[in-house]
């Protein structure tokens, strides 16, 4: 089975969030099951070394305003197809934002180009390699479906995966012509969305199947609260919608071997986790005298993540003898709020603005619990890392958080299956109660240690989910043969 993934980012090469982690892990898991996967990715500056060592497999003389080529390369166990178009991807800023923090003015062209290249490979392959199925990820690859539709040619089955429906790729109707889109597609039954071009909507309308990253999120997307205006489209295509839970890379996230930790540990050597806690306290200037749990947050600082509620809960958290170490960046108001909270609670709240992959591992290794109070969360990965590291997740009951963490209620504790704390409703009061429950559990060392060991044994890898993807892909391929 030959599979083409089309995505805007892929770990460890280029990453802004969980999408990259998924694209970096699933192809390897599928390869282990016999599939042959290639990932089509824009050739951002961070990929220059791979371009230099790769093999050119296709060239374009006039590709959205400049010359371009496609380069095949293999790195980190992943077969890549790099879309080398310097006029689109070689620029300052991040892969989505300019140096001033605004969307690149031509993101519609940049990711329309990625989609067109994906459709091109789907239809004609590269060399002797031609995919049996294409999996397009999020809005940046949404127009793969539109380009295949308007080609009128037989095409392999297409699956569109929603990682976060809040980001839809909406642009004015004037982009139709420069994107080379057939005007007939600009219709309410096509890619038109309230007078704009909807990249993600194109994928939802024209794909053979739609997946998203957890079963609960798949159900939530059918409601006005979570569907973000596309719930009607998804309801009409409910038979084609499947929720498949994300996993994590068990080699990259392993407390037994993690080089980022000063002291590695496992289920049978859980006591060694304590040294990482002390190291983390030192890094965040936290007092070693606290007797409550050390909570951590590793997150984008946005309203979606519910961290405004956490700011309101900090006085209660500190009063219970607990501490907080936060790593993140995003909304300026939230950044300021957590910087000020650290100043108000010296020794008990520590804040580092930014992102540091090594530090994120050290926080998972050193914290007692990880707070994830998201108002919605398609899947989430940090709670899976927390389970793996015995850093018990305290999560809102939504999306993939609800699917992956077993709440420590009385029944779950008696059945010896609890792995963390869930809370609902998703309010400041609900979060405060969850923090209080966590502190009460932490004060019972035998109960806490049993939950940690259970969490660390909980399956969080890709094997089961990759099998679900493979079964879905196999069914679609057989359907067109």
Automatic annotation (TrEMBL):
Catalytic activity: [(1->4)-alpha-D-glucosyl](n) + ADP-alpha-D-glucose = [(1->4)-alpha-D-glucosyl](n+1) + ADP + H(+)
Alphabetized InterPro entries for the sequence: Glyco_trans_1, GS/SS, Starch_synth_cat_dom
Domain Glycosyl transferase family as annotated: residue spans: 283-413
Superkingdom of origin organism: Bacteria
Span of domain Starch synthase catalytic: 2-235
GO molecular function: alpha-1,4-glucan glucosyltransferase (ADP-glucose donor) activity
Family: Belongs to the glycosyltransferase 1 family. Bacterial/plant glycogen synthase subfamily.
UniProt name for this protein: Glycogen synthase
Species the sequence originates in: Sedimentitalea todarodis
